[in-house]
Design a protein that fits this description.
Layout (H helix, E strand, L loop, with lengths): L1 E5 L2 E5 L10 E10 L3 H23 L8 H14 L1 H13 L3 H12 L9 E20 L3 E17 L5 E19 L3 E5 L2 H24 L4 E4 L3 E4 L11 E4 L8 E9 L2 E5 L16 E3 L18
Parallel strand pairs: 3-4
Antiparallel strand pairs: 1-2, 4-5, 5-6, 6-7, 8-9, 9-12, 10-11, 10-13, 11-12
C-alpha cells in the first residue's frame, strides 16, 4: 500500500508487484456542489424554516398532558437556534469543496490494506446534488417525541486514466441533528451545533462512498464461518461495530440480517442476534452492507418460523 498526496489530500494507492507499471492506484479527486454554494444555502434555509414552522404550528393543536406540544416546540426551537450557524457552515464547507469528505474517503481507502483495484489508475470524483431538512414528530397518551434531520444527496463516479467512467452511484444520507422526548415523568433534549453536524455528515458521506467503491473492486466477503459467527474481509473504519450486514445461505434464499459484534484491522465478526445457525453460509460468498438509512438496518433479527 502506498500513500501519497493528490490535490493537497491523502490518496491511497494499492500496490502489487515491484514496479509502478504493475501497480493499480485509486485516488480521491474532486468533490464539488452540483449547483452554486449559495443555491444550497438558500434552499437549506427555506426548508428548515418550513419544517420548523410547521412543527410549531402543529404543536399548538396536538398538545396533550404528556408534552407532545412541548417536544415539538423544543425540537423546533433547537433547529431555529442554529439556522444561521448552519447556513454559514454549509457555505464554508461548500466553498472549500467539502474537505472532510475528501480526507475521510482517502483515509478510508488507505485503511483497506492490501486492496488493489487492478491494473490502471482510477480517480473518484463526487458531487453534492441536494441538501435539505426533515422534521418528524410522534405523540401518544404517554410519550411525545420530535426529531430533526439533515438529508444530503450525493453522486460519485470512478474514472480511469482516460477519463472514462467505469463505475458510479448515488445515495442519500440522513443525519439526526436534534431530538426532544417528553413523558409524564421525564424530559430529554439533544441538539448539535452546525460545525459538529456538518463535520459528522461529511465523514459519513466519505465512508459511504469509500465503501461502495471498495466493494465494487473487491466485494465484501465471508472469510471464515464457525456456524455461529462469520468473519469478513474488511475491518474498521470501513466496517464499524454495530453495522448491519446481510448474508444468504445454501438452505434458504431469504437473506439473514447479522450485526457486526467485533472489528479489528482488516477483519470483522458478525453474528445473528436471533442466534440463527449460519453453517450453510459458504466461505467466499458475497455480503451486503446495509447503511444506517437502508431499511435492512431496521429489519427484525428474529427469523420467521412456521407454526404447528
Amino acid at each position: 500500500m502506498r500513500i501519497f498526496l493528490h490535490h493537497g489530500i491523502l490518496v491511497a494507492a494499492a500496490m502489487l508487484g515491484t514496479t509502478a507499471a504493475e501497480a493499480g492506484s485509486l485516488s480521491v479527486g474532486n468533490f464539488k456542489a452540483e449547483e452554486s454554494c449559495r443555491f444550497y444555502v438558500t434552499e437549506w434555509e427555506r426548508e428548515i424554516a418550513v419544517a420548523t414552522g410547521s412543527s410549531s404550528a402543529s404543536s399548538a393543536v396536538v398538545a396533550n398532558p404528556y408534552g407532545a406540544a412541548g417536544a415539538r416546540r423544543s425540537s423546533s426551537q433547537a433547529s431555529s437556534a442554529y439556522l444561521r450557524e448552519w447556513g454559514t457552515e454549509l457555505n464554508e464547507i461548500c466553498s472549500q469543496n467539502f474537505p472532510r469528505i475528501r480526507s475521510t474517503m482517502a483515509s478510508a481507502l488507505a485503511s483497506s490494506g492490501s486492496f488493489n483495484p487492478g491494473d490502471g489508475t482510477f480517480t473518484v470524483n463526487g458531487f453534492l446534488t441536494d441538501i435539505g431538512y426533515e422534521s418528524t414528530s410522534y405523540g401518544s397518551a404517554s410519550v411525545a417525541e420530535a426529531n430533526g434531520y439533515i438529508l444530503a444527496s450525493v453522486t460519485y463516479q470512478v474514472k480511469n486514466a482516460k477519463g472514462n467512467v467505469v463505475y458510479g452511484g448515488s445515495f442519500t444520507k440522513r443525519f439526526n441533528t436534534d431530538t426532544a422526548v417528553e413523558t409524564s415523568r421525564s424530559t430529554f433534549q439533544s441538539s448539535q451545533s452546525g460545525r459538529t453536524v456538518f463535520s459528522q455528515l461529511q465523514e459519513q458521506i466519505g465512508f459511504a462512498v469509500a465503501r461502495q467503491v471498495l466493494f465494487h473492486f473487491e466485494p465484501l466477503r465471508v472469510t471464515a464461518n464457525d456456524g455461529r459467527s462469520i468473519a469478513l474481509n474488511y475491518g474498521p473504519p470501513i466496517i464499524p461495530m454495530g453495522a448491519a450486514v446481510l448474508v444468504s445461505g445454501e438452505r434458504s434464499i431469504e437473506p439473514r440480517r447479522l450485526t457486526v459484534i467485533s472489528a479489528t484491522p482488516g477483519r470483522a465478526i458478525a453474528q445473528s442476534r436471533a442466534f440463527a445457525n449460519l453453517s450453510d453460509v459458504p466461505v467466499g460468498s458475497e455480503v451486503f452492507f446495509a447503511e444506517p438509512e437502508d431499511e435492512y438496518s431496521e429489519t427484525s433479527t428474529i427469523p420467521s418460523v412456521p407454526l404447528p
